[in-house]
Amino acid sequence: MALLGTSKYAQGIGLSGVNPDLASERQTASFSVEGLTTLLDGRAEHTRVRRAVVEVIERDPVFSRENQYFQTQNERYEAAVRKAVHLQKKMHEMGWREDGPEFIYIYRAVAGDVAFLLHRVFMRSISVLGSDEQVAKWIPLATKHQLIGSYAQTELGHGTYLQGLETTAVFDTTTQEFILNTPKISAMKWWPGDMGRSATHTVVFAQLYVRGKCYGVHPFIVQIRSLQDHSLCPGITAGDIGPKMNFEHIDNGYLMLQNVRIPRENMLNKFCEVQPDGTYIRRGSQKINYFTMTTVRVSLLSDEVILPLMKACTIAIRYSAVRRQSKLNPGEEEAKILDYQTQQEKLLPQLAAAYAFHFVNNYLHKLFDRGYKEIQERNFNSLPELHASSSGFKAMLSQYCTAGVEICLRACGGHGYSLLSGLPSLYTKIVASCIYEGENTILLLQTARFLVKCFAAASAGQPVPQSVTYLAAVKPGKCPAKNKLDFLNPDIYVEAYQHTAIRLLSSTAAKLQDLIQSGVKKHEAWNQCTVQLVQAAKAHCHYITVKNFVETVEKLENKTGIQKIMKHLCDLFALHGIFSNAGLFLHDGYISGAQMDMITASYLDLLGVIRKDAVPLVDAFDFTDKSLNSALGSYDGNVYQRLYEWAQKSPTNQQISPAYEKYLRPLLHNKLSKL
Amino acid sequence: MALLGTSKYAQGIGLSGVNPDLASERQTASFSVEGLTTLLDGRAEHTRVRRAVVEVIERDPVFSRENQYFQTQNERYEAAVRKAVHLQKKMHEMGWREDGPEFIYIYRAVAGDVAFLLHRVFMRSISVLGSDEQVAKWIPLATKHQLIGSYAQTELGHGTYLQGLETTAVFDTTTQEFILNTPKISAMKWWPGDMGRSATHTVVFAQLYVRGKCYGVHPFIVQIRSLQDHSLCPGITAGDIGPKMNFEHIDNGYLMLQNVRIPRENMLNKFCEVQPDGTYIRRGSQKINYFTMTTVRVSLLSDEVILPLMKACTIAIRYSAVRRQSKLNPGEEEAKILDYQTQQEKLLPQLAAAYAFHFVNNYLHKLFDRGYKEIQERNFNSLPELHASSSGFKAMLSQYCTAGVEICLRACGGHGYSLLSGLPSLYTKIVASCIYEGENTILLLQTARFLVKCFAAASAGQPVPQSVTYLAAVKPGKCPAKNKLDFLNPDIYVEAYQHTAIRLLSSTAAKLQDLIQSGVKKHEAWNQCTVQLVQAAKAHCHYITVKNFVETVEKLENKTGIQKIMKHLCDLFALHGIFSNAGLFLHDGYISGAQMDMITASYLDLLGVIRKDAVPLVDAFDFTDKSLNSALGSYDGNVYQRLYEWAQKSPTNQQISPAYEKYLRPLLHNKLSKL
């Protein structure tokens, strides 16, 4: 054992108990941590349910993530399937229902480390796009996991541009079947989760052909593996796409179809249908086909985008209150790195952003709940706004949170780079959110297209959706702030964001118009404006986020302590955004150089103010040690002891490498044991 | 086999030959690709040697990286040791010497995938810090790998702040030995490469105590494992620190010392020595102890920072010329994504940066070669400038290149996220360069400290090192450019960078002075300025990089085609920097809003110009397919076929997962094989 470095001596010199540096951070909180947790959860009842779910899950060894950082892709997959199946049992045992209050916390409790997420998208797409008969047939089977579903949209050669999908589904009137084919390699389905090794069925998106005419992309239920022995069905080629940056536990797969025949009833036909004689009938907007993806985009924000940033902040801020380095003042002991302005400037804006995004996510959910109800009543009017909002905010939040997690990782120095910190896996996972469910740049351009239309309408005095009415309110002028304290007035900074959002949009719309009028073709002109259109779309989302944060803080009037710290975070989020995008605000002189100096001063002052509450502010996120799964981020702050203990469990310490006998021993100077 | 999805049908529908979309990109190069490769290598002879080395290495199956993306940490380590040992044989066989021309290309040829890199740092530190006797004893043993060395500086609780290291070395006059100890867990050595499983020896940095007096940090050679059986030496606890974000092939280790005795001769004593009676003698600056790290910082830039960005650009640009998505013009076929302005705006500035950094790296090497000669002659005058330059440029380049690799990864959408693209491993590796050999923020602050001193000296009319003489040239005024073409005049933009660098430094120096004069303690005042000091240090390095690029382009006057395209890249690098940091240039009105619009217009125009040569510009980097190891980046552009073929080799497709029998089979509806 001494050979592998786990001597008793080593065990004996560590820390124990709660790290006093971290404990002291908690004694001076300016607000009630429990109160803030309740605010984040919505109400105390939710907090209670969430904690109960987390406790049940974390007590069950099947859901343990203890060895996660040491496992291979095969091991991760097997564990994820095991967890998914066990979860069904657990839910039954606990009486947790899919429509019950516990359900929304289960995914968070298992930290996303389960299989069959695409199975849920399979079910959701049938629920949204399927007829009553289709729902009645498939949903009960899927609910009981008597089949495993997937969602096969993306192809090797086609992602976000759905119209370009190349898989074909040709209707055969004689047999009343669709014949599905993968006409070339770029048409192979590629990436669908749960499809590489697990799924028995999948929803395939394919170009529908009836009597030689193409009707565009439609969804079809296709069985791909036998329910008896899991062998691939005739005409099916499928497998796993191999190693990825993360998501090792998911069997993202590929799928090729060769003359695969499915019955007419397997086309999801709530909104369109092919009748037995080949007549094609459409009910409602075809855009509804994309609505599944639109809702997925919003539903993923909380668990896949905002929570990871909250976790990264928790880990990095707790660690920064324990880690000491260099001296702030000569003669004193080394300082906590959280006391350095540069460290505060890395971490605290991320913390503020996590809160800002939590609140804007609530705003989006309200928007979508309203829209979803309308769509159920076949009123599709809000689809463009929903699509633009889901696109823009998914892009903005995923980009911001990914950058934020990376900043947290790098702010922890070398130890952040160890998988045991938990930060690398948060990063490698969240970065995918910039790509999946619509690549961010393309999404921002879709938002921009909506904004350009609304801007034209607003300028012409026509009605526009509520979220963009501000576009009609173009006010020239300058920022009226006179000193740095003025920039802690939300009216001042909200106005600055609004002004900048309108300026970017109007100047780009003008450029677009000029190009077209000078004879450049419309599509080419659009392309020449896209860099600036992306800026404009981001500025719009940034403005809404700041405005929503301000409104949220205003509503906290009966919670004084919490309102005060939330106001600081709101100010910090807003001023950090101006400081980091100074050029956008200075460009037309709305903000002057002297005012930017005031903003910088207020911004840097705020860092010092929020720093005092930094640890309680992450404690309020209420993550358990197990859910963080981080040697750096645990509640007790015993980072070095934990890093050392966890490292010893690594497979690299479980064996003497064969490399020694094979390659080193023959080489080393072994006349003497000691030189 | 059909079960695992590798049917003949699947093989049959792929592409073959060179992708015509990529081939067409190469027919219109405006310059000689071979000529540019020669320019990058320095001269044609270097290109010849480099290609010969690469060919020999890549022909040898031991150096294959074919299965790299599928291997576990243990497998990667074993392969890396095997490669390192085999490399010695190969060098002997080929007659390649450590001081020969081939040597500099070997590391590039094996793509960094070998063990014993820290063994080289071990040797370098002995060469630099050791006496002639120490060099004579240890270097021959190390050269023949009769021992494996490591470099144990970083501790669990101490990284960049070397003065804070806690390991102790107490001189025992009676036995003429140093007694080394790890007094607490935070003093454990943590991270040293080659130490977790391989090293027999290491250079330990420890606080030297003689007769109760501490003389600060010194380097000591310590044997940690037996040369006969590789068991840990008495008093040694060591092992592997476990999984990391990358560097799976390296056994980064931990080390604890308990009363480990080493002879007096094992303190590296070229610059300081403890005599038998305990008298401490210093020769020259103590700062020389840090010089190893300073030189390592510069020597790593090419292979670990710039080459990865070049590789990422090669992969992403080739892929973007093959990948098609959506339509630029209705009715046409889908467009190459490289034809979208937003894609150009992601990738082409990275390409320009790769060239800019290659050239500034040449500049740094010249600076260091000169400085190293002076130090050999015990003239330490240039140390502050060398230290500031190595710090600032290491920080700036690693940060910029890391961001650049991430942009390339994300610009390839979902396929970039597959390990098979080669991009994730480039990212997870390069991100470490922001942390190791000095954390970037701390390094930038060291550069800033140097700049503040030089600025004060320059303002007082005192002489300053050549690279900062510009600080004396504070000229007020405005940018004289009248139209967008003026911004393609290097005098105009170099002046803008210089102006901004001086402004940031002088305004922050003034803030620092004001704080101190208002009674804030010096260290606290410094802390309150650090966010802005970091900005100032970056602006200095950015300015030098732009200026050096301009001077490099000027020297290409007898290579017309190459000079023209390099001029475009230089303009792009400069204007992208202004566009992306607009606030810094607009702040005091040196650049007006109207001028920023001109800059934006020129910048966006350049994207279209350089796009035409984008593929030849990455071809000139001259990477082989094997060195890129990317399914997306190969010379022939057959991306989909290669992704599909490589995925099938994944271990996830080599077995039917036990998960099916264990968890799925009992669940699935198996009354019928088909629903």
TrEMBL record, chains A, B:
Domain Acyl-CoA oxidase C-alpha1: 290-452
Chain ranges of the Acyl-CoA oxidase C-terminal domain: 489-668
Keywords linked to the UniProt accession: FAD, Fatty acid metabolism, Flavoprotein, Lipid metabolism, Oxidoreductase, Peroxisome, Phosphoprotein
Needed co-factor(s): FAD
Main subcellular location: other
Gene3D superfamilies attached to this UniProt entry: Acyl-CoA dehydrogenase/oxidase, N-terminal domain (1.10.540.10), Butyryl-CoA Dehydrogenase, subunit A, domain 2 (2.40.110.10), Butyryl-CoA Dehydrogenase, subunit A, domain 3 (1.20.140.10)
InterPro entries: ACOX_C_alpha1, Acyl-CoA_ox_N, Acyl-CoA_Oxase/DH_mid-dom_sf, Acyl-CoA_oxidase, Acyl-CoA_oxidase_C, AcylCo_DH-like_C, AcylCoA_DH/ox_N_sf, AcylCoA_DH/oxidase_NM_dom_sf
Domain Acyl-coenzyme A oxidase N-terminal: 33-148
GO BP of this protein: fatty acid beta-oxidation using acyl-CoA oxidase; lipid homeostasis; very long-chain fatty acid metabolic process
Family (UniProt): Belongs to the acyl-CoA oxidase family.
Protein name according to UniProt: Acyl-coenzyme A oxidase
Organism: Anas platyrhynchos platyrhynchos (Northern mallard)
Gene that specifies this protein: ACOX2
